[in-house]
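Usage

Read records sequentially. Each one opens with the input sequence:
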Amino acid sequence: MREIQIGDTRRNHIRSTTRLASGWISLATLVILLGWCSAWPTPAQAQSPGNNTVYASSTAQTGSAAFIDASVVPQQTDICYTLYKIISGATYAYPSTGAVIDARGINSNLTCAPGNTPWQHTGSSPATAPSVILLPAATITINTTWTMPANTHIVGEGPNLTILQATPGFSGDMIDMGAGNSTFCGTTQICQGVQVEHLQVNGGGGNGIVNSYSQDASYVNDVMLLDLGGIGLSIGGSIGGSAMNSGPYSNLTCDTGTLSAVCVQIKGVSGGTRGIRGLTCTGPSGYSKAAVLLDSSNNVIKDVRIVGFYDGIRIGSQAAAASNALFNILGDTNAKAMPPPVNVVHIASNGYTVSDLSIMGVVNQGTGSYAIEDDVTVTTLPDSSLAMYVLGRKSPGGYYSRLTTSPNAATWAFGPNAPTGACVRGSLHSNDSTSNNGGTLYVCDFNTSGKLVWQVVL
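and closes with the structure output:
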């Protein structure tokens, strides 16, 4: 009996131990499961539609208004009104420091009603908080000038994808970079950080993009300007204000279509701009317009191709232009299609001062046209290519200094030997050889037989 009792006790102990062990296994499993659950983030807190979810801590999520998806907020009658409601804070709270507004998902109501822009709505106060607006790959029809406040950046999907199209009969500016008032540009009435890129501006009887009030960190990049009746890109201009230190204005394409228009003008900008870098300008035959009007000082224009204008770059026709530099200018207008003269670069003499102008690298691919037409010194250069043309400033005696590599105009050259061959009257040649060869300075002038030859001066 005792052995049986002992055996029973052992069996009972084994059963009890087994139950205890299985209990520990279950408890361990429960602990692991609870640990896994605690490792997962807590559910997102309440947020406004359109806001991205971000981590507020290592475990908690919350909504962030720094990036807003405009396609999921309540849609208004048109895309402009939807964007205005977001920026003005009428839809949900909008950060005073600005946000990125992603409107790329909006694909309907793309015609903005008269008076509507992303920053204005008829009968409402302007919305001028900073913003970066990502526009959709679509055609947005506008009825009212888009006047951009300070620290505003509009970005398209590309010039052939995002198109701002003027409604029929539109005659104003398509885009104004800032405005001459404190509402859009602060108490100084000068804006900073107004930027336009990766889109197309199409149509309208007026100007395309106008910058008269935006300075540092304000630029236009990768923009196509089509079928405009005024000026494609106007910088400065006669309406006042200043675009000083703005730019660069880069990767621009302008086609005026059948209209008599100007691609780019820089006018009256105090202190100059950061220049134009990359421009292709195409115009119609038969119009006596210039592709680029340079009527301001301290600017650089480089990498330009021009087709279909009487003047490629016309300098100083409407205002003084000093200390400008042009690099790599290609003229591709054939004079057979247009009555001559056709000039790649035209230095005007309309009563405004043009001086200290440096031109490096002009190519004239047309026939019957000119690389340089200089009305200031009455010089015309028919060269097909020209390495350098420099116009200095006017002396007290009323004369200008000038230097060019063209064989068709008087210049000053140097070399280790006496000059030979044909020359242009007034040209100088310095012989820098140690042997002098009978003289150190030569001038091209008529000899007693009436022939232009090199003659020793010193």
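Summary fields computed downstream for this record:
- Residues 2-39 form the longest helix (38 residues).
- The two ends are 145 Å apart (CA to CA).
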